[in-house]
Amino acid sequence: MGKKIARVLAWFLAAVLASILLLAAAIRVDQYVLRYRAERLQSDIRSLELRKSTFADARRLEDRWFDNTKEKVCRPSWCDLDISVNNTSARHLGFLLNHLAIRAIYHALGGRVAGAYAFIQVRDNIVWGKGIGLSIETLDTEPDGRRVEYELMGSIGTDSSPLWVRAPHPEYAIGGPTACTSCVEGWVKFTPFADPRDVLRLTDLNFACITRWRHCTKQADTLPTAWRELQAEIAQGAENDPNPCTPAIIRSLSRQTHRLELLKVIKLRPDPNLPMMTVRRLPESTPQRPDQWREFDLVGDHIGVGAAHLGEQFLMFDNRACLVAPATEENLEAARLGAAEGWISPAHPLDLPFGKPSPPKIDVH
Predict the structure, then answer these.
(1) Helix 55-64 vs helix 2-47: angle between axes, to the nearest 10 degrees?
(2) How far apart are alpha carbons 169 and 173 in whole angstroms?
(3) Which fold has domain 247-349?
(4) Could you report the per-residue pLDDT of 175-188, keeping only the tens digit for each?
(5) How far apart are the C-alpha atoms of 169 and 163, rounded to whole Å?
(6) Whole-model pTM?
(7) Which of 183, 201, 229, 307 has its CA 20 to 30 Å from the CA of residue 288?
(8) Per residue in 142-153, is it b (16+ CB within 10 Å) or e — as a string?
(9) What is the DSSP track for 232-247?
(10) 3-state DSSP of 37-64
(11) How large is the C-alpha radius of gyration of the chain?
């Protein structure tokens, strides 16, 4: 009798162990499948060249990811595509959140919620925007022994308003949020005019984080190339250097003409504590704030090159990377080049994409 009970118990334990091993294997297979698909998606996104690839190229890529694509508006003149691939736990996140015991077992077996996403933007039959990102659930241990859980994210893509472009590379920026309490994120943002070699070099999300037993925990894990470059700039002190409004930066910012104004100093009010000047918007520029008067006051040394002079003209940008710059011939030529290149972006209430029709308001499926 005792031997029979022992055999039953042995078979039961063997079945439990086999079930655990099968579940762990299924989780690993699911992770490797997601990694494989995410790396394929990154390869496809890398294959599109900004301002050269066409609507037909984007459509061929969409066909390969048809089951994972969400169309917003899509026609040769204006097409927005979102592509996402997720593992099983991400597709059933609500179930895991409502069953914490099962979620704990899932984590114990090495599982984590993860997914990759990409976007493509076509304007006037040309690819003007693209990007790819990674989001992965991360468990870590603090120095005091506390277990913490957060979302590790990395993304690379075009951005319609690059706020922190820098003189060494005015067509792209590397950084991350500073106020996120439940995430660790790194990003690379670039304009459609960035050097294709830079775009290829920086588009290297590390999808091995999906399958690593030891969790990735920081931006350098998900964005290795970009974060090495950023850390090198910080080590050299470049991150803290003054950011002059160079012609290259002015050219980059001037592609969005609704963010640019040409102003003229018409009155000076000297004051040892706070010198002021009155400026007038010149008719050639598009006002950033049409609710303001055509003439308004600014701090006297606002242009950042010393005291202003009566009759002086300067360019004013709606951008923290470069607020104002003297209207020298070199800077004006850079602004003209940028405006001539243009930046096709979502419709703005003051300036539809450089005179082009706004996108349809209905979804096309």
Answers:
(1) 170
(2) 7
(3) OB fold (Dihydrolipoamide Acetyltransferase, E2P) (2.40.50)
(4) 887 667 788 899 99
(5) 13
(6) 0.78
(7) 307
(8) eeeeeeeebebb
(9) HHHHTTGGGS-----H
(10) HHHHHHHHHHHCCCCCCEHHHHHHHHHH
(11) 27
